[in-house]
# Entry
Amino acid sequence: MSAIPEALAERALQWVFGDDEVDPGLIVSDGRAVPELRAWLVGLEHHISDLKRTLGVSVSESLALARLHALIVEVERAAPRSFPAQLQADVAAPVVSIGAYRKRTRRNVAIIGAAVLAIAAALFLLVGPGATNPKVHDVDATIAEALTRDIAPDSGFGFGGAAEPTARDRGFLIGAVIDLSKPRASGQPSGAAEVALAQTLASRALQGLDAPDDKEARRQRALGGCAAVFGADPERGECEQGASAYITARNNVLR
Amino acid sequence: MATGQFFTALRAELEVRARMLLAGASRHREGRFVPDDLVQEALSKLLASYDEASLRERPHNQLMALAYRTMRNLVIDGARKKSAVLADERPDDQGGIGAQLAGRAADPEQASAEDTLIHEARVGKMRGALAELDSNERCFIDCVMETDSVPAAQKKCGWPDKSPYYVLKKLFERLRGAVGEEVR
# Structure
């Protein structure tokens, strides 16, 4: 039985017990060439657990074991699988209950609430001051001003007017559509107002592209993200950047 | 590689690192990042600091090292600010592993009599093996298990002088051999 390369084993230990200097992604990629790595890591995990219990140290609170387990999961994910093994894994995969699904998709209500306010400000720019309730800025001046004064001009977003949005603008809007469409932290689905706003933003995000006529179908397409909108088109990268910018803007507003 | 493919590949690499970087923080739910958001932030930061051409020109290892450092710094900054950006309500099997670890920890009340006997035998052997370590080795292994940190253990025990991870690996192998586990 072949041994685990010393250097790889030491790097794994350095990731598990070190101070974040080692890039764990490289362990995973190098580990693809070492089929025995996963078994070695699992054995190590059991050994460390036993050792900790013997010494009376908590296992469930262990940062090292959490990291080691995450490494095992990633090594497993990265390992090339034969078709029968893949099929077996698929068949054995547990069916996700509705309760678990709802729990999984919950997010902090602050995200949704702030995103709604943030998008309201973006919508203000989109449809123009004449058609927008001037109270938008009264609702949360901080968020509105952050988006209109700081984020939008610096990044060069131009949501208003009739011009076709850039790929980056589309990405920003797609990020917002996805956020608005998520269930609330309470587990309740998005409200009618959130869905309507998401539909409006999705229409704007897809403007000028070969998009479905139905507004809900447009929202569903936007929910697929930049990949669904651009496929392999080179503009997808810019779209991804826009979606990233949305996340950053949202988080900055929430901080 | 087209722009889309480049970002797709970069994102995939970042996702692997994000999941592992955040694994240890999964029990501290308030203020933790969600892996997807960490990836997005890291991408934004990379694109804000370097133009796309500059990123694409880098050798893979250099790009990955840069990406990892960017993510690690974001996590450190996030911890310092203690910003409650998201309280991730997803179950641990979707974003964290705390519950998995807790679930895998042996529960003596749920273990069968046979399991308990096997466990007791292993603990006995382990205690015997630990007793045979010299004082430096014992200090080091105790401290590593308590702190989950080799640098902290090395500092506290003043040992080993060098190659602490190599020493730790050899200690694990000796202990595993002593309790009858297969060592590779």
